[in-house]
């Protein structure tokens, strides 16, 4: 083992961190976000470089990582299989050795989980999983932080991780990388996942890598999964994971969930869409594109008002504009 290796951590699956570490991570995320929204300069990553390696195309992952790195003072190197030798003429192990000598951290969006694990095993710097066929930990991080902001954060910005314990998340869609990661998150953070998948696309607990079978329940009917109620339990649904696929069965599942939202009993839950990439997948033709389409499933089904202020303009910015107008 080389000096310093014991201190280096990779983030390849959700279970790579403990519950206590996630509590600290979400707390720091809240602090950094408030500073950014208040136009407070905070750049702890000056002179640090992130290498982003994409074997799969991406919009949201690339923009979020790249924008975040620049906002915090760092720089980014963007690589694809078309402009690098990764996985072609050059072995993954050699690419890891070369790239990690020149940057401070690496994010990889690729196919097989084994490829990113091989890269991490030969990297001198931390490696982050931007997506693989098996896991998508960064998206679940964003979804959980969205929920915590709404249900587990006070006006001062303090986070209460207990807001997740005992909650129910309904996943409607394939038993894919997102579903696997939700199960890992449930096992670590103490909530339950209700899973409803098309026949032949079930979740595989062995692939998900979970030990506690009690952290999830399987439902054939997606409407039952989304209800979130059990005999003797008055807990209600908190989130829906809706991921559109290429098969018609997925659209049918989303239609069933939409029917439950509007025709069945109203529940004070929240909806997170895993990939709002088109009207058929997003569940409507309103034209609203959001990474996590968050709506309250209550009276009227109307979206929340933007927490940052009117038309998404931060409150601090609004106050500044008003002051400048008065001064004129």
Report, as a whole number of angstroms, the end-to-end distance: 65 Å
Major sheet: arrangement of strands = 7-6-5-8-9-10
Mean pLDDT: 76
Order of helices and strands: HEHEHEHEHEHEHEHEHEHEH
Under CATH, the topology of the largest domain is which?
Rossmann fold
User: Strand-residue fraction?
Assistant: 5-15%
- Helix segment tally: 11
Gross geometry: globular
Number of domains: 2
Rg, Å, rounded: 21 Å
Unreliable stretches (pLDDT < 50, length at least 5) are: 229-267, 279-312
The residue fraction in helices comes out at 25-40%
Reading off the top of the CATH hierarchy, the class of the largest domain is best stated as Alpha Beta
Structural class based on helices, strands and sheet pairing: alpha/beta
Question: Can you walk through the features of this model?
Answer:
- There is one protein chain.
- The protein has 328 residues and is an alpha/beta fold.
- The chain has two domains: 127 residues, Rossmann fold, CATH 3.40.50.1370; 150 residues, Rossmann fold.
- The chain contains eleven helices and ten strands.
- The strands form two sheets. It has a six-stranded mixed sheet with strand order 7-6-5-8-9-10.
- Helix 6 links the parallel strand 5 and strand 6.
- Helix 3 crosses helix 4.
- The longest helix is centred in the N-terminal third of the chain and has 19 residues.
- The radius of gyration is 21 Å and the shape is globular.
- About 22% of the residues have low confidence.
């Amino acid at each position: 083992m080389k000096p310093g290796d014991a201190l280096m951590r990779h983030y390849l699956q959700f279970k790579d961190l403990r519950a206590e570490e996630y509590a600290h991570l979400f707390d720091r995320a809240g602090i950094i976000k408030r500073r950014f929204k208040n136009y407070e300069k905070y750049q702890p990553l000056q002179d640090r470089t992130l290498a982003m390696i994409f074997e799969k195309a991406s919009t949201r992952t690339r923009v979020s990582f790249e924008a975040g790195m620049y906002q915090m003072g760092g720089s980014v190197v963007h690589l694809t299989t078309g402009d690098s030798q990764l996985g072609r003429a050059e072995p993954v192990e050699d690419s890891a050795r070369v790239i990690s000598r020149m940057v401070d951290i690496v994010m990889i969006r690729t196919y097989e989980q084994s490829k990113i694990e091989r890269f991490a095993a030969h990297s001198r710097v931390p490696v982050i999983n931007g997506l693989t066929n098996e896991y998508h930990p960064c998206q679940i991080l964003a979804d959980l932080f969205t929920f915590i902001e709404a249900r587990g954060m006070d006006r001062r910005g303090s986070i209460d991780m207990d807001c997740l314990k005992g909650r129910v998340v309904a996943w409607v869609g394939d038993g894919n990388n997102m579903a696997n990661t939700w199960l890992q998150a449930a096992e670590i953070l103490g909530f339950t996942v209700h899973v409803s998948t098309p026949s032949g696309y079930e979740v595989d607990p062995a692939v998900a890598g979970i030990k506690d079978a009690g952290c999830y329940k399987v439902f054939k009917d997606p409407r039952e999964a989304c209800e979130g109620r059990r005999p003797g339990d008055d807990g209600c649904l908190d989130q829906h994971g809706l991921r559109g696929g290429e098969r018609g069965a997925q659209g049918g599942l989303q239609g069933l969930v939409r029917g439950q939202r509007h025709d069945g009993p109203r529940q004070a839950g929240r909806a997170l869409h895993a990939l709002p990439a088109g009207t058929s997948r997003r569940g409507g033709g309103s034209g609203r594109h959001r990474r996590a389409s968050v709506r309250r499933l209550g009276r009227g089904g109307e979206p929340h008002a933007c927490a940052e202020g009117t038309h998404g303009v931060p409150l601090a910015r609004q106050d500044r504009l008003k002051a400048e107008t008065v001064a004129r």
